[in-house]
Amino acid sequence: MHMPGIRVAVDIGGTFTDLVAQDTATGQVIRAKADTTPGALEHGVLSALAPSGVAAGQVSAFIHGTTVVINTVTERTGARTGLVTTSGFRDVLEIGRGNRPDLYNLAYRKPEPFVPRHLRFEVTERMTYQGQVVEPLDAAELEQVASQLEAEGVRAVAVCFLHAWANPAHEQQAAEILAARLPGVSVVASHWISGQWREYERTSTAVLSAYVRPVVAAYLGSLATALRDTGLAAPLYAMRSNGGVSSFEQAARAPIALLESGPVAGVTAAAELGRRIGARHVLTLDVGGTTAKTAAVRDGEIKVTTLHHIGKEAARAGYPVQSPTVEIVEIGAGGGSIAWADPAGGLHVGPQSAGADPGPACYGRGGDRATVTDANLVAGRLNPGYFLGGAMKLDLAAAGRALAELGAPLGVDAAGAARGVLRHAITQMSHALRLVTVRRGYDPRDFTFVAYGGAGPLHATLLARELGIPRTVIPAGPGHFSAFGMLAGPLRGEAVRTVIGPLDATDLAAAFAPAEQAALAELGPQGQGATLLRYAELRYRGQEHTLEIPVSSFDLTRLQDAFAQRCLEAYSFRLDSPLEVVSVRVTATAPVTGEVRWGNGGPARQTPAWAGSRMVDLDPYAEPREVQVLGRDLVGADPVSGPCVIEEVAATTLVLPGQAVRADELGNLLIEEQP
Fold first, then answer.
1. In this model, does residue 225 exceed pLDDT 90?
2. CA-based torsion, 236, 239, 245, 249: positive or negative
3. Is 425 helix (H, G, I), strand (E, B) or coil?
4. Which of 283, 215, 190 shows the shortest CA–CA distance to 67?
5. 643: preceding bond cis by omega (within 30 degrees)
6. Once rounded to an integer, what is the mean pLDDT over residues 269-292?
7. Average pLDDT, stretch 503-512?
8. Cβ neighbours for 124, distance < 8 A, ≥ 6 positions apart
9. What is the average per-residue pLDDT within 628-652?
10. Can you tell me the distance from the alpha carbon of 316 to that of 325, in angstroms, rounded to the nearest whole number?
11. CA distance 347 to 401
């Protein structure tokens, strides 16, 4: 699979589009950054490619992480979509689940369906949960439904029949009829996306996939055309939510698998970095311009969930998606998150973001609302003359005015408002980190903290101290770390199949076989020699919820012991009750190209080796004081005691009093508390 040349990865964020390229022969790493262009995301990709100096003819593989799916869903800018379902199940999408996340809110309203009731149609057909036909599909009735859909002007249709996970014959027949009757309309059958039970979740998955499919197909098509026009002939891959990559063609067929396309690459890269530095458990933090994202990696294993919720919050149910997704907690607290005060005088940060245009007030592009970046600039933690390696000059006076305006009704000056904004942001991020550790029974002190993203290193040491984490790692090129992770992402096919029955009476080899075939089919010809990993969702008989365990053999005793141990870790108890198997999951992976080389790799733009100082507010651990400022290249194997600020092209690292920083052989910064 190894191809000579340069591998290129591009990650689109809310504010910046990051590019990382690596020469497969020399290991040299090239990094570039450009503004994200929300109106035409492909323009941001080309803008990042131009300054990298990589010739299109040199590219051997192009890997892309995109926010187009999540943006389309959250902004509700997808295609006009219809739903065709089994007679009597038209309202499953609206009924949803009976459990209410905001239990005592008498005015609670369920999320608005993406398909309104007048675009939801029923047809006569019925399968049993065992896949047996009770009533055949009424093709004549479906033809009438097709005419109604055509009259409504839908651009996409989701087909979800009862128990299609057990036998998809009716769904396949319906999809073929609708595709023939509605040329130019995107038709998505639920069994193409999900092989799991639970009608509401499967219907939601099919609807969302149909809703975004025309948008994603158009975007990937226009990006592919733009790249081909530059002379780039290499294979094009998209990053998937499960941590692997797929071809643009496969991504366009199943776009919902790109839901968390960008963020997961950073988690997979952090897990691999942890393995290389001998860290058993890794806690990740990715702070960009719009959000902060975190995940916990235990024993080198990235947690993948088969049920993800879009927009789920403490008081909001969100929209379920049955697609394997790396488990990430995301909050609206990034560098561009807007700080604001409510009428009662309470300070808030996010979730609204200034984005790339106009951006924070200090960008000087017309923004006048205070953001986290403005607060860091006023606190002295950012260098106004060396943002993005000096490519952008920050306006300190504009940041001060925005924060002074924010602080006026609160009775504080600009410096006080900056302190408040930063404390609030740290509190939000700390809560997110606790959700993936303490809330799940894990002690944060057992983890190595890996922080990246443009703003991650600036907040990492404050969070590590608050949570008692002994070691923080800032990888080489932290502002491009997620894009770098895409270079290491393998081709990955994934399949989940519902298999209900007693564990001791289930032929697991036979149960896994269809999932194995489906996972390998996703890889196509490149799946030859792929590595297969198997997992099973089990539960005690009589219970509703399941726990997933890896399956390395079909030995019943080993599986029972593994589940008991997992149950102890999750719930602090185990039972002697019989086990049931609920579903099986298979992951098939194959490398895209040769092995990625870790470390600095000779970036195209080295950080100048300088030393200086400036006033920095070290709240809450010290008053503002003159602090040493170092170019990252000056940090070597000998520890440098804090407080200090370490600057590089696309990130700034803050080291607190009582901490020390040094560099390891891979070019990482290691920050530890001094005794």
1. yes
2. negative
3. helix
4. 215
5. yes
6. 91
7. 95
8. 87, 135, 137, 138, 141
9. 92
10. 20
11. 17
How far apart CA 648 and CA 458 sit, in angstroms, is 12
Per residue in 151-198, pLDDT (tens digit) is 999 999 999 999 999 999 999 999 999 999 999 999 999 999 999 999
Amino acid identity at 32: A
Segment holding 659, helix H or strand E:
strand 659-663
Beta bridge partners, 321, equal 308
What is the C-alpha separation between 393 and 415, in angstroms, rounded? Answer: 20
Tokens of 663: 């560099």
Is residue 602 scored above 70 in pLDDT? no
Tokens representing residue 396 in the block: 């300190």
Cβ atoms within 10 Å of 314's Cβ, excluding its own = 6
**What are the b/e assignments for 533-542, b being 16+ CB within 10 Å?**
ebbbbbbbee
DSSP letter assigned to residue 387: B
- Among positive and negative, which fits the CA dihedral 79, 84, 90, 93? negative
β-bridge pairing 308-310 and 319-321? antiparallel
How many Å apart are CA 441 and CA 74, to the nearest integer?
31
Lowest mean pLDDT, pick from 2-6, 162-166, 525-529 = 2-6
> What's the start-to-end Cα distance of the chain, in Å?
48
- Whether omega for the bond prior to residue 351 falls within 30 degrees of 0, making it cis, is yes
